[in-house]
Structures are given as structure tokens and as C-alpha cells.
Amino acid sequence: MSLSPLDHDHRYGELDQVIRAYVGQEADDTPAQAGPALNAYLRHTWHARPWALAIAERQLRDYADHPPGRLRLRLGEFYAIPDVGLADNEVQQWLRCLADHIRRSIEQGDVPPPAIPATHWEWHARFPETGQFLSGWFSQDMPDEFADHDEAVEDYRSSTDPHLVARLVGELHELLALGLDEFGCALALAELGMEVDPPSSHGAGGWLTLVADRLGSPRAEYGPGPGGDTSS
């Protein structure tokens, strides 16, 4: 019997967020220094959900001190730590190391300054709607589904809740405010799920600016003009 969603989140929800930050990253943290993955988690969480840090510290330490016993393993009622490149007998010590770094960050008020995302997890945690937009509408199948990039953008606008469209516009402006060069902007698009090139008439940054402006502008609504005239 697997864990219910409520039980999973209560016991392991924030632990899972920390572990997800290690996708594509090495678990190379030491007692003296946190690695890039944990630094990315700390940076984003301090600025987005600072209250979650204490939960992460407790869940990491609880899991390290009380790993699943044979009964929970047999019933499937436990969180399975993904393979992070460590031997089984090293995982508990590593989890305690992460908990110590998070506790130290909280107690010392060590808030990392905002910066360009450094990991795949941080890109998606910071720009979630952008990731949905790019991976959903600009995957490698995009040329088979839409005539061009403009049609794909319009399909997103017409099929997505306006609140989410507004959220995307805000994220795009935040992304542009990072001041990335053309290579950095193209890398950001790839990290966030875009699998096709921007239109040949625009670079990555220019296309993002165009999309932000287009989605941020009210849609043209056509209807009867003064006196019932529908001509334009």
C-alpha cells in the first residue's frame, strides 16, 4: 500500500523538493561547503518560500535518523531516495549534511542574493509557467502542429486561463531582466523545454521580448461599432 498524497507531503514533501534539485547534479556536498544543487535550492527557496526551509531541515534529519524499516519497505509506505551516485551507507550521512547546511543558513540568516539560475531544477522552479509554455507549445512536434511560431503563441493564449497567461508575461519580463547574452538566452530556452529554434528573423532574446509584448497586450475584440456599424 503506497503512501497517500497527504501522508507523502506531510512526511516527505519538502525532502522531495530538495532531492529533485539534484537532478543532473552531483551530490558533492561536504560539511564545509554546500554543492551547486543545494545552493540553487537555498537561493530559490529563500526568495520564494522561506518558511519551507525549516520543514526541509526537519524532514531531511528525520529521514536520516529514522530510515524506513522492513515493514514500511514491505508495504511500500516510504519515500524512495533516487540514485544520487552515493553508496547506500553514505546516503544517511549526506542527508544529515544537507540538513546541517540548511539549519546553518536559517540560523545565520544567510540569504543568497538573486542570481541567474544555475541548475535545471532552479530554472523550472523559478519560471514554472515559462517551462509549461515552451515545452508544451514549442516541442520538436511544433512544426507538425502549427504553421509557425505566431500560431503557436496564439494557440497558447486562446487555450490558457488568462491568469496563467499573465503569470507567463511576468515570468518572461523577469527572465529578460536577467540580462542574458544571446547564448545565455538560448541556453535558458533549452533548459525550459524549447526544442525548436526561434524564428529566423529574431534571436532568442528578441523573440522572448516579442512574445511578452504580444501576450501582454489586450486581444483585439471585433464587434458592432457606433450605430451598429461592424466595418473596420
**Count of discrete alpha- or pi-helical segments spanning 4 or more residues:** 12
Mean pLDDT: 90
Q: What string, H for helix and E for strand, traces the elements in order?
A: HHHHHHHHHHHH
Helicity, as a percent range:
55-70%
Give the overall shape, derived from the CA principal axes: elongated
Number of strands: 0
Radius of gyration over C-alpha positions, nearest whole angstrom? 22 Å
Distance between the terminal alpha carbons, to the nearest Å?
A: 64 Å
| Helical/strand content category | mainly alpha
Low-confidence stretches: none
Number of separate domains: 2
Q: What percentage of amino acids are in beta strands?
A: under 5%
Main β sheet profile = none
Architecture overview:
The chain is mainly alpha-helical. It has 2 domains: 5-107, no CATH class; 127-216, no CATH class. Helix content is 60%, strand content 0%. The chain has 12 helices and no strands. The protein has helices at residues 5-20, 36-48, 52-65, 70-75, 88-107, 120-126, 128-137, 142-145, 149-159, 162-176, 182-191, 204-216.
Concise summary:
The chain has 232 residues and is an all-alpha fold.
What's the structural blueprint in terms of helices and strands?
Blueprint: H1 5-20, H2 36-48, H3 52-65, H4 70-75, H5 88-107, H6 120-126, H7 128-137, H8 142-145, H9 149-159, H10 162-176, H11 182-191, H12 204-216
Helix pairs in contact: 1-3, 2-6, 3-5, 6-7, 7-10, 10-12
